[in-house]
Amino acid sequence: MDRHLDTGTQVYDFYEEILVVCPRCGSRGKVVIDEEEFAKLSKKKIEQGRNKYFGPRRFICTKCVHRDRWKGSQIKVGSNCDWYFGFKLWLEIECCGELFWAYNREHLQMIEDYVGAKLRERTKKGRNSFFSKLPQWIKSAKNRDEVLKAIRRLKEKEDGSY
Known about the structure:
Oligomer: single chain
Number of domains: 1
Strand content: 15-25%
Strand order of the largest sheet: 2-3-4-5
Number of strands: 8
Shape: globular
């Protein structure tokens, strides 16, 4: 890809599914919206700010079937842990002497598109996008090949061929 247009995607746009390491067995798990519990919330609670970012969450391990529910009111965004339970992210790898991570496959793909582009353009909305907040070592053209290699390895891990 030669060109990338930053239209203002926020890190919060990746809230629906976060891939994590199961604390019980070390396999891949998911943190997702607990639609059942969210549907039970009253309209009043939703109007008071209980939107889907802060709505009830469910953790599900895809291997050992360990499950957990989160019903908190505070999230922690912007680190290499999921926002709700604080579990380690599944998609993380050492790269350029730093820790590279992504919340899910969509997040990883968007970073790959950005890093792989020789021309990176922004719209006005792009000033506050997650791309503008990426660490400089990821944005640097001198690290492009190494970052793209790390992304390919994470995709292989996600596909099960790692």
